[in-house]
Amino acid sequence: MAEESRIRFLNSNYVGDPVRIGTSRERYEGFLIEGERVRMEFKGMRDALIFTDLRMIVIDPQGIRGKKVALASIPWRSVTAFSVENSGTLDLDTELKLCGSGFDVCEVRFSKRTDMRAVNAFVNARVFGVGG
Known about the structure:
An eight-stranded mixed sheet has the order 5-4-3-2-1-8-7-6, covered by helices on one side. The termini are far apart. The protein has one domain: PH-domain like (Roll). Helix content is 13%, strand content 43%. By secondary structure, the chain is mainly β. A hairpin with a 2-residue loop joins strand 3 and strand 4. It is built from two helices and eight strands. The longest helix has 13 residues, at 116-128.
């Protein structure tokens, strides 16, 4: 029997701190669908993460100068499982891992200052249709 081919979707991107919506707008506004609303935005030194009502978008600048930018889109309807990890006493970051239809794991890391309860509530609402 052939084993199903599953890919690791993205490497572990550091998406940093929550920021004001629109901070990375120039990198993603042409990528949004008409009527799609940005709900949360996070920004690291290079990478960024956008939560919209329809999907999660990871912005991953490539190369030394970051002029080439990869945008990865994960529709909430394709997410089948996820985990949220808060930071411990000595940890510098927190994590969100998503698994879904057509991909194995997508992992993003946030700064320790990120409210992972809010992230969890948002993802729960999108994946399961309940809560925040």
